[in-house]
Design goal:
By secondary structure, this protein is an alpha+beta fold. It is built from one helix and six strands, in the order ββαββββ. The longest helix is centred in the middle third of the chain and has 13 residues. Its EC number is 5.2.1.8.
């Protein structure tokens, strides 16, 4: 699977360098659309990656990470009431309580 168009990629710039993320609207159209809208609004600017598992995944974008309280990072935002857990030993699965 590969990206069909240039707008199917996102550039994430950090103090450590840039990342190019491939987006797949044919697989997750609402998620891609929501991500693109929020990115254009600047919603993710200044947020941190609060969960990093090398070789597996990164997780970030929580607006709570913009404050100085690291204890609330990864707990809120617009999707705060919806959550799932990607298991490291089976990355294609999701456990949604």
């Amino acid at each position: 699977m590969s990206c069909a168009k240039d707008n199917d990629v996102a550039l994430i710039s950090t103090q450590f360098g840039d990342m190019v993320v491939e987006l797949y609207p044919e697989v997750a159209p609402y998620h891609v659309e929501n991500f693109q809208i929020l990115a254009k609004e600047g919603f993710f600017d200044g947020t941190t990656f609060h969960r990093i598992i090398p070789g597996f995944m990164i997780q970030g974008g929580d607006p709570n990470s913009k404050d100085n309280d690291r204890m609330n990072d990864g707990t809120g935002g617009r999707a705060g009431k919806y959550f799932g857990i990607g298991r490291e030993d089976d990355p294609d699965s999701w456990l949604v309580p």
